[in-house]
Write a structure and sequence with these properties.
about 70% helix; DNA-directed RNA polymerase sigma-70 factor; NepR; single chain; transcription; mainly alpha; about 55 residues; about 0% strand
Length: about 55
């Protein structure tokens, strides 16, 4: 039973640390080179993205 508690606590600590690390990363802006690459891939696949607010 004690081992289960330790394992649960360890798992919880790891989860919290990973969430904290990835939350910081998720707040960072996407680098321009990735945005350009995504645009190129969309053009190649024929998916031209509509401007925001254009639902026609």
């Amino acid at each position: 039973m004690e081992k289960n508690r330790r394992t649960k606590k360890l798992t919880q600590t790891i989860d919290e640390n990973l969430r904290r690390a990835y939350a910081d990363t998720a707040k960072e802006p996407v680098p321009d080179r990735f945005i350009k690459l995504l645009e190129q891939l969309r053009e190649q696949s024929g998916e031209k993205q509509k401007p925001s607010g254009d639902d026609s």
